[in-house]
Amino acid sequence: MPTPNAQWAGSDFQEPPRTTGGVALCGACRAAGACRLGVDKERLGADGVAWFELACPRSQEGGPNVAHGGWTASVMDECLGHLPLLNRVLSVTAELTVSFVKPVPVERPVQVRAWVERREGSRWYIAGEMTLLPGGAVLARASGVWVTRDPGHFARHEAWLAEQ
Ligand SMILES: CCCCCCCCCCCCCC(=O)SCCNC(=O)CCNC(=O)[C@H](O)C(C)(C)COP(=O)(O)OP(=O)(O)OC[C@H]1O[C@@H](n2cnc3c(N)ncnc32)[C@H](O)[C@@H]1OP(=O)(O)O
């Protein structure tokens, strides 16, 4: 079985390491110390809406000067999925729908906002949108379901995997 990234050692899932811009780092980005998707800043507003500032790195270019759609979907997954985390709740994405409204230019500042539409049992229904700065034109919209997990989630997965 592959050895997990050493960056997880002693990790508290509810309190992941963050960049100076406040961005929570997932496993592969911890060694780099920066979000490889290009998310630069993250904060939770008093109204419960989460804000992210980012730019699509040139390495994620799809068409000429525009982002690969997989980058846009990953960013929406990442940003919307950080909203429970900003509330100290561990969750995983169960469903995600992305509308690609306009091509996303590479290396141009964009903003993502994410908010909770409703909560039912262990499910968080979260929506968000990506806009171009400074004008605010909508580039993408997303909505999805995040399911809260206890800290044993990944250990149970490893046990399940060992039996496959
Ligand atoms: C990951 C974080 C670590 C920290 C890193 C730091 C920062 C990084 C942040 C990264 C952010 C990026 C984030 C990522 O990329 S997370 C990575 C991508 N996502 C995954 O890997 C998830 C894989 N799937 C699963 O693990 C399971 O299928 C889950 C856990 C989702 C359900 O498993 P299971 O079925 O065994 O659970 P249950 O039977 O106990 O049901 C529990 C509840 O779930 C409801 N349900 C189930 N399926 C769906 C569905 N499709 N639509 C709507 N609801 C669904 C169900 O009705 C029930 O609701 P309730 O009756 O309780 O209300």
UniProtKB/TrEMBL annotation:
Localization annotation: Cell projection, Ruffle membrane; Cytoplasm; Membrane
EC numbers for this chain: 3.1.2.2
Main subcellular location: membrane
Enzyme class: hydrolase
GO MF annotation list: hydrolase activity
GO BP term, example: fatty acid metabolic process
SUPFAM superfamilies reported for this sequence: Thioesterase/thiol ester dehydrase-isomerase (SSF54637)
UniProt KW keywords: Apoptosis, Cell membrane, Cell projection, Cytoplasm, Fatty acid metabolism, Hydrolase, Lipid metabolism, Membrane, Transit peptide
Cellular component, GO annotation: cytoplasm; membrane
Bilayer topology term: Peripheral membrane protein
Domain Thioesterase: 65-132
CDD domains, per database record: PaaI_thioesterase
Catalytic activity: decanoyl-CoA + H2O = decanoate + CoA + H(+); octanoyl-CoA + H2O = octanoate + CoA + H(+); dodecanoyl-CoA + H2O = dodecanoate + CoA + H(+); (5Z,8Z,11Z,14Z)-eicosatetraenoyl-CoA + H2O = (5Z,8Z,11Z,14Z)-eicosatetraenoate + CoA + H(+)
Family matches, as InterPro entries: HotDog_dom_sf, THEM4/THEM5_acyl-CoA_thioest, Thioestr_dom
Family statement drawn from the similarity comment of this UniProt entry: Belongs to the THEM4/THEM5 thioesterase family.
Name of the protein in question: Acyl-coenzyme A thioesterase THEM4
